[in-house]
Amino acid sequence: MPAVALERQPEPPLDPGQTAAVVCRDVSVRFTTERGTVTALDGINLVVPQGGFVSLLGPSGCGKSTLLRVVADLVAPTSGAVEVLGEVPTAARRRREIGFVFQDAALLPWRSALDNVALPLEVGGGRVGIGARSPEELLNLVGLAGWERAYPHELSGGMRQRIAIARALVYAPKILLMDEPFGALDEITRDRLNEELLQIWASTGTTILFVTHSVYEAAFLGQQVLLLAARPGRVRELVPITLAAPRRLAVRETALFVEQAARLRRVLETC
Amino acid sequence: MSDGAIEADGQAPAMRGAFVDDADAREKFVARQRRLLWRKRLLPLVALVGIVAAWWLAVTLGDIKPFIAPSPVAVAATLAARFDVLMSNLAPTAIEALLGFLLGNFAAIAIATAFVLRRTIEEAFFPIAVMINTIPVVAKAPILVLLLGNGMEPKIAIAALVCFFPTLVNMTRGLRDVGQEQLDLMHVLSASPREVFFKLRVQNSLPYLFAALKIAASTAVIGAIVGEWIGSNVGIGALIIQATYNFDSALLYATITVGSTFSALFFAAISIAERRIIKWNTGRAV
Q: Does A98 touch chain B (CB under 8 A)?
């Protein structure tokens, strides 16, 4: 086995000429409830290069979803600084640089598949990025051509999640944040969507942050896996995944994949 | 049913192309659906005919005096003979019920909107709305007659009041019970408060609103009738009182039949509107 770098890398160096999509500097988030204060995130440092794919992996309560929500401007950090494409998250959100895919698809049940995908064009000024594709094209891209007029309740969980992905891509955001998007799906559907997601990532050049509970999903998708430890949520390790592109599902049977997933699991056990 | 009309055929293909043309099975399936639909339509009719027959038998065989309970035949005869009287009394009741329905629901929707937009307003006024709702209709009626006189106005006001509360509660809930993820989505999309309200909250409230409107369709008619009990010469309510005092039980029953039929038609109209407007929710609709 080649020696895969596993040493701690809080801020991986960017290649020359490469700009950061997301930078977190000493980001902490504390929530105050009647039972006391909870530290969800404690001093997170992270640099995600543009066009990168980073999986966020960790046990429940490690704050991986919170970290994603901080980047999306859904949660304000208690201390520290977050930069999205060199701006504060609020500015990046207003400029439509951020797409978010939720765990439960969050489709509007009164809208057809096509109208759900088109929603971002109707609200918030309808601003779209460079290279934005039409809702029809995107439904086609996620394999739902012919289902334009269907309502969410007529579709399976996997199809609903595909619509949510198409909706996030319709305004061509530079950064796509995905919060356990396939967590509620069966394994076969999840595998298929994982492979399709990598194809979409390759064809759009979007930066993706992907939260997951699954070691295999994290390793299969990510160029890097950010392992977080719980209570308080903090970075345990940033592990690069050295699998050649394009990755196919069969890569999971290779010795290299098995080795890297095993390392992730060993680190995860200490989180 | 074991003809396997909708059974998977062993080699079920993946999600797309899941539907294989099988004219025979399809025909059987459609026929079965049609049978079930007719069953659903006919059974209540059969039950109604049975009840009317039992009523007729009881009155005839039990030798019950006409002023205690009329036979269905006598009621039918009265319905036919005094149809013009019944219709001329239905007209004011129908107008009162419809205007009260519109007024009460419009006010409820407006106030629910204010509640959702400004929590302070809800905290201040919701307890008062609850208190007004606890006053029985028969107590509200004389108050409103004193306030608004003897014309149609107090009846409209009573019909509006009885519609108001269920719609207020349902509409407030419908506008407020929006999924957190949907709100987060709108935030990520930088949607304006106006867009969140119209594209999310209003749409979300429609099933709640129609549930309330269906209740209101029948309570508005009841409200108008109760209003007519107190100081009125015309209307279904007045006719009920008049028929009761004259021991004209056939007219009493005929009046009730007319009033109920109007209520049922009103309810059906709202149900049809609901089915046309909320296409996405028909599976769950009552």
A: yes
Q: Where would I find the H helices in chain A? A: 64-71, 89-94, 113-122, 135-141, 157-169, 187-204, 215-221, 255-269
What residues make up the domain containing A85? 19-97+184-206+220-271
Q: Do A74 and B188 touch (CB under 8 A)?
A: yes
**What whole-number distance in Å separates Cα of residue A125 and Cα of residue A127?**
5
Residue A3 lies in a domain: no
CA pair distance B228, B261, nearest whole angstrom: 18
Q: Distance between CA atoms of A16 and A120, rounded to whole angstroms?
A: 34
Write down the pTM of the prediction. Answer: 0.83
Comparison of pLDDT for B60 and A2, the residue scoring more: B60
pLDDT range class, residue A6, cuts 50, 70, 90: very low
What is the set of domains in chain B, with CATH numbers? 1-63 (no CATH), 72-281 (1.10.3720.10)
Shortest Cα distance from A226 to chain B (angstroms)?
23
Task: State the Cα–Cα distance between residues B274 and A2, nearest whole angstrom.
Answer: 66
CATH number reported for the structural domain that contains residue A243 in this entry: 3.40.50.300
CA A2 to chain CA centroid, Å, is 28
Do residues B267 and B218 touch, judged by C-beta distance below 8 A? yes
Reply yes or no on whether the pLDDT at B19 is more than 80.
no
The answer for B 190-229 residues in CB contact with A (under 8 A) is: 190-192, 195, 199-200, 203, 206
**Residue with token string 């859904």:** A74
Choose the closest CB to B185 out of A106, A153, A159: A106
Identify the closest residue of chain A to B280 by CA–CA distance: A110
Bond into A13 cis (ω within 30): no
Q: Which of A110, A151, A192 to mutate against chain B (most B CBs within 10 Å)?
A: A110
Rounded mean pLDDT of chain B?
88
